[in-house]
Amino acid sequence: MAQDKAHVAQDKDRSKPILVVDDDGDIRLALEMLLQYEGYEVWTARDGKEALARLDAEQAAGRRAALVLTDLKMPGVDGLELLEAVRAREHAPPVILISGHGDVATAVEAMQRGAANFLEKPLVDNRVLVTIRHALHTERLAKENSGLRKQLGDAWELVGESAATRALRAQIEQVGPAAAAVLITGENGTGKEVVARSLHLASARAAGPFVTVNCAAIPAELIESELFGHEKGSFTGAYERRVGHFEAANGGTLFLDEIGDMPAGAQAKVLRALETHEITRVGDSRDIPVDIRVVAATNADLARAVEEKTFRLDLFYRLNVVPLHLAPLRERRDDVLPLARHFLERAGARSGRAPLELAADAERRLLELDYPGNVRQLKNLLEGASVFAEGGVIRVEDLERILAAGPAMSVPDAPLGAGEADPFQARTFEEFKDRSEALFFRRKLDANGGNVKRTAEELGMQRSHLYKKLDRYGLR
Ligand SMILES: Nc1ncnc2c1ncn2[C@@H]1O[C@H](COP(=O)(O)OP(=O)(O)OP(=O)(O)O)[C@@H](O)[C@H]1O
Ligand SMILES: [Mg+2]
Fold first, then answer.
1. Which residue's CA is minimally distant from atom 9 of ligand 1?
2. Segment 136-154, tens digit of pLDDT
3. 23 and 10 share one domain
4. Which DSSP state fits 445?
5. Model-level pTM?
6. 380: burial class by Cβ within 10 Å (0-12, 13-18, 19+)?
7. Residue 188 CA: which ligand 1 atom is closest?
8. Which of 259, 376, 380 has the most ligand 1 atoms within 8 A of CB, as the residue to mutate?
């Protein structure tokens, strides 16, 4: 599987030519043959000047080199000058320099001036190929990351015009680039994950991974192996070696969501990892260095948990270097309409239509609501109301229809309540099906105010059948 992927990636990289530049005809020919044999298209030039002319001519025909492989010492425009001229171009390809044996000083200078790598003479075929592949791969990753960053940047934009949200955006700009740990607090649906991702995107780690760990969703006995990974055979069920979330987040941000629910045993280990910047896999004794920035979030009162001794004070300090608090939506009503328009615009863009508009009375209604489910509830309310909108306008009646259906209906992806088990954390398919069914019937029943008859009608089920289900899941 991994091999297949590598192949596809290589093929993509091979679709664009490599420009080989050397004044020595023998080397030029040898490189050309080697690369062609490997499936690359090859352009050649005898010196820097000819190389630049070739790049210009090809560009005029709409073609670009994927990479430039150039000798350092050449008459006229030499390798370093070529490097600079190439790097100054738009969509500059990576440049690999070939230096004379032992000419390390120049090679280092080349790297400082932006060369992707350097090769020493005499050239060894395999080394040449590996170096080229690596440079192409790195270049492609960098491109994908910046593209991804643009997309994600839009998707995780922190919208709102209230004083609180403006201040928060400024704080993110300021704190984002720092390495300090951030603790985000706020009620459900206030935007804690949006803030966590914005911090990541505002940091120098933006191109690195963003790894979310929902501490509440992992059973206590598995949390250590989830966070730190394990070696094969380290406990019953550890069939494979597994990389933990800390390692996966290396070079990026680790988002510890619902940190208040982290079991006591894991708290000590997390603290140690944050202090030493090292982790140990379960069943292994080696320390593995990790470079991560930690952002944690909770809707619980951690300070109280500390008082009640369910959360370690030292870990609290470690995580709470920079506290960011998200006010409930009802306390920042100036955000409501900008958020509403933002959600409608995104929904419009997704469906390729002009965004729905809000009638004046609908806007007024939106401003009155208390939003116990905060921004998530507003978003769901609009999505629901959009279904009934006519003529491109959401009217107050459309909102009322959703509001009348009750809280369960207006917050379909509400966080799991007490006694509700997350289907996606199920161990087996059977367990998944059971949990999903239980959740489905509970939510539907709630949406109908506990009225079984109405629920059965809505679901198109026989009432007796529904009762059986409700009994089975203890919902009656
Ligand atoms: N300021 C905002 N701008 C744009 N979208 C937002 C904003 N705040 C919240 N959202 C959207 O609202 C929804 C809920 O936000 P998010 O998941 O970040 O909340 P949360 O605080 O992590 O909630 P929970 O405690 O339930 O995990 C998401 O769809 C998110 O994209
Ligand atoms: Mg969240």
1. 191
2. 887 777 776 666 655 555 6
3. yes
4. H
5. 0.60
6. buried
7. 25
8. 376
